Amino acid sequence: MTKPTSTRERIVAESLRLFADRGYAATSVAEIEAAAGLSPGAGGLYRHFRSKEEVLASAIREHIERTGKQVTEVLEHAKQYEDRPLEVRLRMTCQAGLAKMREEQDLIRVLFRDLDQFPHLVAEMREGIVNPLYDGIAQWLSEQPELADADEDWPAIASVLGGAVVNYWLANESMYEPPTRIDEKRFVASWARLGMGLVKRAPAASS
Fold first, then answer.
1. What residues contact residue 155 under an 8 Å CB cut-off, 6+ apart?
2. Among the residues of 79-153, which ranges form H helices?
């Protein structure tokens, strides 16, 4: 992630970090200003934003914009690896999904802790971040050469496979260890094996 350079970018980045650590309501404008390198309580935040809520909304919208670009770039980049075995590509996809969850961990914490106060921002996250990621998985699966002949409901399959990644990360994050202590390497390998089950196999020859 690019390091914030402008005052506005610092305000957005530091506010999201503070919201994730302390909660939206418990974070004051003065604390955001201090974390962003401004004089706390001097009103520097209001030169860039009308309110604390507008800072939160801006953080979410910037993440939405970045996610849209990432999905496009990842799908283009993935074409370079079509000569590798499908199981390897599936593992790479799973690892990329976990990396995206880690990248968005502050935003996810804010989502579960505070965004019930702001249903319009939940809707923006759903349509701008969550659904595009699942759509990206569905598109990627449907474009793999080995799966070209598979008659599958790719959006539904993407919700299952993508949901497994989300659940694994959330369980690890909220309960401080993964489900049944399955480490990430084992999870990724098993996720890829499940994906391999989508490959259409020739019927067994009758004896």
1. 134, 135, 138
2. 86-103, 105-114, 119-125, 131-143
The two three-digit tokens of residue 190, written as one number: 């098993």
| Single-letter code of the amino acid located at 42 | A
Tell me the pLDDT tens digit for each residue of 34-84.
Answer: 999 999 999 999 999 999 999 999 999 999 999 889 888 888 888 889 899
pLDDT band at 1 (very low <50, low <70, confident <90, very high): low
Q: Which helix (H) or strand (E) holds 156?
A: helix 154-175
Six-digit token string for 118? 């702001």
Count Cβ atoms below 10 Å from residue 77 Cβ, excluding itself. Answer: 11
d(CA 184, CA 11): 34
Is residue 124 within 8 Å of 64, Cβ to Cβ?
yes
Could you tell me which of 126, 37, 143, 21 has the C-alpha nearest to residue 48? 37
Helix (H) or strand (E) holding 73: helix 52-78
Residue 32 φ/ψ region, left for φ over 0, alpha for ψ in the -120 to 50 degree band, beta for the rest: alpha
Task: Collect all residues with Cβ–Cβ distance below 8 Å to 5 and sequence separation of at least 6.
Answer: none
User: What is the 8-class DSSP label of residue 84?
Assistant: S
Rounded Cα–Cα distance for residues 42 and 25 (Å): 20
In this structure, what are the phi and psi dihedrals at residue 193, rounded to the nearest 5 degrees?
Answer: -65, -40
Retrieve residue 150's tokens.
Answer: 């598979």
Contact 20, 60 (CB under 8 A): no
